[in-house]
Amino acid sequence: VSEHLLQQITELSKGLDTEDPASRVRLLQQQVADLVQAVNDAVDQSATGSDPSGLVKATVRGRGAVESLYISPHAMRDLSADELGAACVNAVRAAKAAVAGQIEAALDPSLRDTP
Amino acid sequence: VTGPKPVLDGDTLAKLPPAVRAAVGSFVTAFDELSRERFTVHRADGRVSATVDVFGNVQDITIHQLAKRELDNLTLSDEVVAAIAQAQALGRQAREEATGAVTLFGLALRDVRGKDPETVRRRIHELIAREAP
Question: CA-to-CA distance for B133 and B96, rounded, in angstroms?
Fold first, then answer.
């Protein structure tokens, strides 16, 4: 994410090449506002991930809160208590990785500008 | 045991103005210490527990055999979610307490959170003017 933010800041600095100082400021303000909006929209997203067996699923929001978790009846039957705990951790981590990917994509100008 | 990578190296820190250096230094120290802490919450009479770090990353979930035997899958799922949420809240609280205690120009961060930036700026200028020789 930080890499994409740096790209965004580089994009913002291009706006400073404009001749008219007032236009520069307006352009920069608009670009900063767009970036802030993109970041806010991105962290409000959620994504779902599952453990490798697919028996436990988790949905995580961009700010890290676990929105929901689903332990399937199969998981209850087939996994030991220890395995079930590990499956929950793996599902949450997979969901978190998925939402991080969504946020990066949302902040990537090349992907965001694609129609 | 290797700790987390320092946020700022010594050279970078040394180049900052003294007042800012002290604040940044205590901020970094607070986060270094916090990043090693773990926050655990037990639910369902201790049969379900979740452990997270200060950033809310889930480090461990423990489910006792009795929980697996006595709770249905949906109830157990909800207990795990609740344990994680409560553990994350503990981590968030610890983070806010530690970083809120950091002071800059005599102002604690906890006292400026959510305040109007212009009011904070004026207050900092007043404090700097008061300390100036």
Answer: 34
